Structures are given as C-alpha cells and as structure tokens.
Amino acid sequence: MTINRRTLLGAAAALPALGGLPFRSARAQAANTIRIGVLNDQSGTYRDLSGPGSTQAVQLAVQESGIAAKGVTVEVVQADHQNRPDVGSTVVRQWIDRDGIDVVVDVPTSSVALATNTLVREKNKVFLNSGAATSDLTGAQCSPNTVHWTYDTWMLAQSTGGAMVRAGGKSWFFITADYAFGHALERDTGNFVKAQGGEVLGAVRTPFPGTTDFSSYLQQAQRSRAQVIGLANAGGDTINSIKQAAEFRITRGGRVKLAGLLVFITDVNSLGLEVAQGLVLSETFYWDLNDKTRAFTQRLGAMPGNIKPSMVQAGCYSSVLHYLKAVGDMGVAAAKASGADAVARMKAMPTSDDAFGEGTVRADGRKVHPCYLFEVKAPGESRGAWDYYKLLGTTGADQAFRPVADGGCALVRS
Amino acid sequence: MIENLLFELEMAAPQVILGLVNGAFYALLSLGLAIIFGMLNVINFAHGAQFMMGAFVAWMLLAWAGIPYWGALVLAPLLVGVFGMAVERTMIARLYKLDHLYGLLLTFGLALIIEGVFRNGFGSSGLPYAPPPEFGALDLDFDFLFLPGYRVWVVIASAAMCLLTWLVIEKTKIGAYLRAATERPELVQAFGINVPRMMTLTYGAGVALAAFAGVLAAPIYSVNPAMGANFIITVFAVVVIGGMGSIMGSVVTGFALGLIEGMTRVIYPEASATVVFVIMAIVLLTRPAGLFGRG
Amino acid sequence: MADTTIAVAAPLSAHEEAGFLGFTRAQALAFGLLLAFVLVSPFFLYPVFLMKILCFALFACAFNLLIGYVGLLSFGHAAFFGMGGYVTAHAAKVWGLTPELAILAGGVVGCVLGVGIGWLAIRRSGIYFAMITLAAAQMVYFFCLQAPFTGGEDGIQQVPRGALFGVIPLGADFTLYWVVAVVFLAGFLLIHRIVHSPFGQVMKAVRENEPRATSLGYRTDDYKLMAFVLSGTLSGVAGGTKALVFGIATLTDVNWTMSGEVVLMTLVGGLGTVFGPVVGAAVIVTMQNYLAEFGAWVTVIQGVIFVACVLAFRRGVVGEIGNLLKVRL
Questions:
Q1: Interchain proximity A90–C289, CB inside 8 Å
Q2: Which residue of A90, A91, A262 to mutate against C (max C Cβ within 10 Å)?
Q3: Domain coordinates in residue numbering, chain A
Q4: Which of A46, A338, B196, C171 is deepest in the core (most CB within 10 A)?
Q5: ipTM over 0.85
Q6: Which residues pair with residue A403 across a beta bridge?
Q7: pLDDT by residue (tens digit) across A236-289?
Q8: Which of A122-136, A365-379, B52-66, C168-182 is predicted with the least confidence, judged by mean pLDDT?
Q9: Which domain holds residue C196?
Q10: What share of chain C is helix, strand, coil (3-state, %, to 5)?
Q11: Would an 8 Å CB–CB cutoff place C25 in contact with chain B?
C-alpha cells in the first residue's frame, strides 16, 4: 500500500483528510432522527441569496415545528455544491448512501437541482427545492419525491411580463443572455407580453458569459423606443446591465422602465437604491410585505452578512416546516421509509406559515402561493436599511404558476 | 437607404467611444503584463485578481476611510503595488532560475487565493461604487442618446497612463536601466545596478497598472471578486495577438481590439465575445510571433 | 527557453531499464500496489468516489503526457475533457449507444479537437502555448454553451449508464466500477507504453532540446502534434467515462477552472512522473470531497496548495518519494 498510504498521508499534511474519506459502510442510524441536508452555494454567486442563510432558516423551521416535543430529533447539515453538478451529485449520493440523509433542501443552480432531482428520486428520499429557477422540475422532469417551493422561470416571466403590461408597459425590448436559459426567459416573457396585448419590438443577444459592458446593448434597446427593457439574464449580467443603465440614464424621465426577469433582493442590495431605483421585478416573498413576514424576519434574527432573508431562504424555512408537519402527521418511521409517501402527505395537507401565507402543494410537486410585482424605491422613498420595494401588483396563487396541464409532468398525465 | 446609413452612422459614433473604453482596460492590463513579462519573464496570471483588488481597495477607501475617488486613484495602485512587491520578494523571486511555466502556475495559485479571500470577505454579489459627480461636466448629451462623462474620462486617463509609462521606459534613465536589464541582466548588475530591486519595482509597477485599471473600472462594473477573471482570458488573447515584444504594441493592440469588439456588438452582437479569439487564431496562422512580436 | 526545464525526472541508468511492460523494478512494484488498491478499495470505500478519482486520474495522466514528456503546458485541457463528456452523454442518451461505444465517441471527439487546437497551438511554445490553449478552450466553452445538444447551463441530465456490450447492465455502482477501472488501467498502460516506445523517446528529445532533435532529422512539430492529439483523445475518454458515472455532462467540465484543476492534480502528484497524476488526482478529489462542507474556502486552499507546490514542493508527492528512495516512480 506504500503509494496509496502516502497519498493519504500527503493529503493529511494539508488537512485531516482521513475523516473526509468516504467509507463504504453507512453510519448507524437512530430510527427517530430526521436528517436534513442543506445543499447550496456557499462560495459563489448565489451565496448571499441562499448560502448559510438558508441553513439558518431551516434551523428556525426545525425549532418552530415543535417536532422535538414528539420525541423526534432533527439534524441539519450543510454543504457547498460550488454550482457544480458533479460536486453536488457526489455530495447528495454520499449524504443518502452513507450519512442517512432523508431530505435535501434548497439547491440553487438549475443543473445541480436537476441532477439532485434524479438522484433523490432514484433513492426514494425527499427533495425540497427552493433555490433553482428551472420549471422543468415540475414539468418534463417532475418527480414524486420533489417539491419545488419558491419560484420558477414560468412564474417570473408571467408575473413580470403580464403584470407589467397591465401596469402600462406595452412595448418591450429584450437584452438576452445568449444561451438556453436567456432564450427561454425571453420567449416566455414575450409570449405573456403579447397575450396581454403588448408588443415585443426586438431583442439583442449578448454573449454569455464574459459580457461585462452592456452599454452598447442598452443603447440599442433605447433606440428601439420600447417602454420596457426586459433583462433576460441573471446574476452578474443583470447587475451590470442595471448599473450601466443608470450610468447611461436610460431610464431618465421615467419613459423607459427596466424589468429584471431574475433579480433578487440581495442583488438590489448590492446595487444600491441610487442605481436600482425604478427597476421592476417579481418575487414571492419580501421581508417587509406584511406583519407576518416581518415577524418571521424578526424571529430569524441576525443573518450572516447582515442581510434580510431572500425568498429562497424563506422558501427553505417554509418547505422544511411543512415537511416536518407531514412527518409529525404520518410518523417518523413511515416518512423515513419512503420519500415519495412523505411528499404525497405534504401534497395532501394545506400549507400555512408566516413567510408565504396559505398555500398548497400540487400533484406535480409545484408549491403555489401568490406572486408579487415590485418596483424598487428611489433613495428618497426608502425609510431605512433594506426598505427597498413598493408593491405594484399581486398575482393570485391560482394564476401565478404554470397550469398543471401545460407542464407535461408525467405524474398527472394519467 | 441614405436615412438608413445616417442612422447607422449615428449609432456608430458612440459605439466607437464605448469600444475604446473596453480597449482602455485591455491596453492597461496588457501593458502591465508586457512590462512584467519583459523584465521578469513571468506571465502574471494574478493580473486579473490584482485588477479586482484595485477596485476593492477603492471601495474600501471610500467606505471605511471616506477617501473619495481621486484619492483612491492614487492610493489604490500604490497599495496594491506594494502588495505586489511583497509577493515578488517572497515568492516570485524564488522562481527566476526555473522554467517560466512555474511563474505562471504560481500566479495562477495566487489568483485563486486572492479571489477566494475576497469572496469570503465580501460575498460575490458585488458592491456599489458611484462615479464621482465631477464627471457630469464631461457628459455628452445628444437628444438620441446620453454618453456619461465618466466613460470619456476612462479613455483619456488610460491613454495618458499608457503614454506616461511609455515615456518613463523610453526616455528616462530608470527606463534605460530597465531595458538594459531586460536584455543583459548580468552586465547591468556588473555596473552596480541592483537588478533584483529593479525586478521588484517592475512587478510592483505592472501590478499598480492593473490596480489603476481596477479603480477606473469600479464605477462602471459591479465591484465583485470575479470581475478580474472575466477580463483576464481576453487580455491573454490580446497579448498573444500583439506579441509581448513591444510596450507600444500592447497598448495599440489593446485599444484596437476594444474597438473591433465594440463594432461587433452593433453588427453581430452574438460574436462579440469570440471575435478576439478568432482574430487570435488568424494572427497565429499568419504571424505566430504576434503583430508586434520579435521572433 | 529557460535554463532548467520543467520536468524533474533524472535520466535512467541502464541497469534500471528492465522488466515487465517497460517498468523498472520500483515502478513495477508501485504498479502492483496501484493495481491492488484498484482491486481492493471498492470493498471498503464508496465506489462513486473511487470512480471519480479514476476518471480524474486518467485525465491527469493524459495531461501529464504533454507536460511531463513533451514539456508543453496546456491550460485548455478542459475542452477535451468536457467535450468528451458531452459527446458520450449525447451518444448514450440520444443515440442509444452502448456505454463502451459512447466512451469511444468521447475519445474520438477529443482526438478531433486535439488535431484542431494542437495544429494552432504548437506554433508557439512555453507561456504562449499555455495562453493559446486557454483561449482555444474558451472558444470550446462558448460553443458548448450555445450548441443545442449540450442543453446550455442545465447540461445533459439523466444519462443512462446502459448495458456493457448491450449485455451487462451497469446500473449498480459496484458493477460500473470495474468498467471504469478497466478503462483507467488501459489508458494508464497505454500512456506508459507510448512513453517507452521509440516515439516516446523522440518526444523526450524534443522536450530536452528541440533544435537538436530537429537537426537529427525529426519533424518535431509532427511529434508535438501527435502527443497533443493523444493527450486530447485520452482526456476525452476520461471525460466521457465521468459523464457515464455521474449521469450528467455539464459546463463545469469545459470551464477553464477545470483546466486549472488538472494542472493542480498533476503538479501535486509530480509533473513527469508515472504515478504522480494518479496520486495527485486522488489527493485533490479527496480534498474536494472533504471540503464540500467548508464551502467558501475551497478555492483558497487550492490556491495555497498551488503556491506551496511551486515554491517548495516542485517534485510533487510521488517525485519527493522517488527522490527519497532514489528511484523513478
């Protein structure tokens, strides 16, 4: 074993690697323990949005579920998938095969979420997705073991596209990240715009990734004289587009509005109100929406990085709370024995919590709740830290998400 | 038809300036790379990370010490330059006798460390840095579009800095030493000039140029840990196209490619990220040493 | 070129050159240990983890062929690895090919790409070579992002493992492990065979002194290109195998960070050593596995290892051991 022993010793010099070696034998498991694994981005683009804050939200849900009083212990672990599907699926496999994880929570980044979706179904555990955008999770790739909780691309396109037209933004021009995600967002949103009687004047495809300067695209958008510039991109691209739109005064005089199709409150925070003001976006949760959301935020306490909870983090709280209710209802043994049964129980029970209010989980795994169209406040309107949004419109829970029949989910086809 | 042409021209004029803005960053970054490579024979993979550091230091100076943009424009390159010199002394200096590739590997590792540390400290969503209001005077406001004065300033400042660097290297005594030491280090050493110290200073200067570009970029782009990584691969391609033989060559190539990229954004936006790489391939096929390269 | 080349292995003295498959005695012993580890470990360790190590080990060995024996540092090997993965995944999922043919398809695409990129890149050497391969790989990345068959940022998901030769189903991790082990060992021995062939000797001559090799009548560019193509082909095979193991092919594997990772693996194990890339891959994969819970510090630690290796540990783990025992491993 010389070489391989030395391999390990070499690694051990840098860190205690032996503990990290995935031995084959599974750990002894207590029958009355539920193990929750929070898998998300702890180091990259989605860290602020999900990251350690999601774990904190899950821990609050565990506390508030009152499940401990029923003699059930809940353990929460977290891991970083680094936005890499191979890292993510390795973690999930080991969690399930070796560590006896029953539930995987959060998982932003669509590619990792889809990989997790497949694995969790194969192993018959539970997947509560909050962070990913892809509507395939409840469509072509829907699974009896998965609940997609917080938002998806269809919902964002429908709310921002449809509600925006109703609010007066009739003509649109898209700045689209030139890859499948951007194209889909542009197409879906464009369809909703047209369905509401608006028109799409054009689009410009920006190379992805690697575009840092959006000014010439913004000018092309401006030349189209559209009332709304739809940003069919995400992350750093969206941030740079918004920042440069402010710099080039694209929105001055209020003639043109920017609509972000995938923007989160953490992005608004990093942009600052001076730059982000007037931006229109959709979310399903805002910490300052009503008394209940404020109470939830209060209970959550100080978050890492001094942020307020994002909708993704709120979704982690809400989904785990509902799952633990189902566990309490059906018993730990049954919930651990079959993830699909646990999810079926979740679908049978109405949801209720401070973050999202009342809602349901549909047969295709889609959690439905209302969706809100917000406009970012001007610095003068904001009354304090994280007072960022004013509400423009609400889409009811029955309208906010893609109808079950349109998703092509095999679970509901029969 | 003619109306159409006028429309295109109207579109083109601001695009030239916008292209030059990107060209300004390419020029500053490839200039720094060329200086470092010329003297140290090291390709500085950490250049993008040091560019990012410049932007972050500007942000810190403003947020923590209240030092505004103009102070940052001087201080940030100095601070990051000093950091660079410390890196050169403690690490890079040990590699001069080895294959150049080790310098590339070392600086690649440094880039990972710097990026990771900033990501841990500041998250990855990016931080806001407002352009100073003074540039309002330079704003170009046509009725059909608005060109922020700050962009104009970036082009001017970067061109001036490139010219200054060129003058220092070509026309001053220090520059003469530097050029001599690049060609025949032993001989220069024999004349009693401290070559290791010159190498340290050169690396510091190259890094400072990157940081200077970073401060210029801070108000335009989101100040985030990945901002340098976005640039550096394109800048490498620029360096391959220009060849690293001449200081002026890297500056000219930088501006020219920025311009070409800018025009591509109007004519065929989908290709604007790849056009630099396509040009690189063509140059390699016809002039493997690069446009301004020596052998 | 600089005074010292990047490869570290000392030339062999005559009495060392002997034995089984061109291995020296020490190498044969080490190979025996490697073989034993490959055979025994799946009974103790988690097979998926081991398969990941083997895929990366093959990838690192292929990369090492170029840097260790031709002296060319490629910073764009992710292009072959990632494209191999995509093509294998597509072949298995959409064309319904059996796994061995799907992996072969991955190798073929690695070969074709190797011809294209190599033809461009071997015009320069040293640092320029590194930058050109980096830029070329970036083009491949853009292509993968755009091409409809790759599924954009979602990648190709739910790739079936299929049945070997259409007969043996590979759904179980334990069964698939043996296939991966065979692919790895075949690739490893192939590289070893090539390096010890007359062709390999010329490659080394090119590394040590290209003008002299040219003056001896060798068309050095042809040799460099062939080495590059071989390296690309095996990287494609490694990427394809990984895609089957995980059932996914995504942009991660074509990203330039993956190119950096394979450099790191080889560097940690020992550039130009026979067993170094394998050990390096094992160390880095184990580390990533362990660090998954630590999140944000992964890149920092990888960077620190890079710096430490370059400054103090240039021979890598295997190189240091070999130096200690005064043998080549």
A1: yes
A2: A90
A3: 28-151+292-369, 154-283+371-400
A4: A46
A5: no
A6: none
A7: 788 889 988 888 888 777 778 899 998 999 889 888 888 898 899 999 999 999
A8: C168-182
A9: 21-40+47-325
A10: 75, 0, 25
A11: no
